[in-house]
Automatic annotation (TrEMBL):
Gene: Wdr60
GO cellular component, one term: cilium
GO MF term set: dynein heavy chain binding; dynein light chain binding
Superkingdom of source: Eukaryota
Organism this protein belongs to: Prunella himalayana
Identification of the protein by name: WDR60 protein
Annotated GO biological process: intraciliary transport
Length: 112
């Protein structure tokens, strides 16, 4: 609810890494690991900002931020085929009106 993200391993109650204020205090409403690239995850905050984290490139801050200005995004999920090496990765955005939007991710964040 405060925009903090914590990375845990299953054997410990304490986080391996923690990022405080990563969304400038906006609640995170969705977070998902990339299906095709294990070190990348995406976070959606309550202000319809999508943050892309690539832990191999930078483990302190997101490597990119994209604002969806047209309408409030209420949730997101990722689509892709992890068993294929084509690097195709998409973000499915559900908007407040019920509209669904699919955007494809740059290859540098999608390739295995």
């Amino acid at each position: 609810s405060d925009g903090s993200i914590r990375l845990h391993q299953m054997t410990s109650e304490y986080p391996l890494l923690q990022w405080n204020g990563s969304t400038k205090g906006q609640p995170i409403i969705a977070l998902q690991w990339a299906l095709t690239r294990p070190a990348v995850f995406f976070a959606l905050d309550a202000s319809s900002n999508i943050y892309i984290w690539d832990l191999l490139e930078n483990d302190l801050l997101p490597v990119a931020k994209q604002t969806i200005p047209s309408e409030k995004v209420v949730t997101m999920t990722l689509l892709g085929e992890p068993e294929k090496a084509n690097g195709l990765l998409g973000i499915v955005l559900a908007k407040e009106s019920g509209q669904i939007d699919i955007q494809y991710v740059k290859k540098k964040w999608a390739l295995p």
